[in-house]
Design a protein that fits this description.
single chain; 108 residues; alpha+beta; 5 helices; 60% helix
Amino acid sequence: MRRIIASLLFMLIGAGGMYAAFEYHLIQSKEGWLVVPKSQAGLRDAYVDIREWRAANWKEHPRLAQSLIDDGKGNLIIQSASNGLLDGVFQLPNKKRSAEKEESSVKL
């Protein structure tokens, strides 16, 4: 009897986990953990870590983006899409300076 009860308990836990995976996104962002209802049921993007995402990543996950917008968390898309936007602008002078340092050290 004990095994039957344990089996039923684990089946219920598994069924609950599958239901949650089908109906919700578990998202890890810079703001912390979020549970967002999915716009369409499915197992795609059940868990997503968006802390280092760029705009190209959002193009690959339109359902996740739509779910965030529907839940009022669209600001996370803007924040993560702009992560690498200005990196090239600020790194360019540093590369030139390091190249100049190498040339000056070679000339010495």
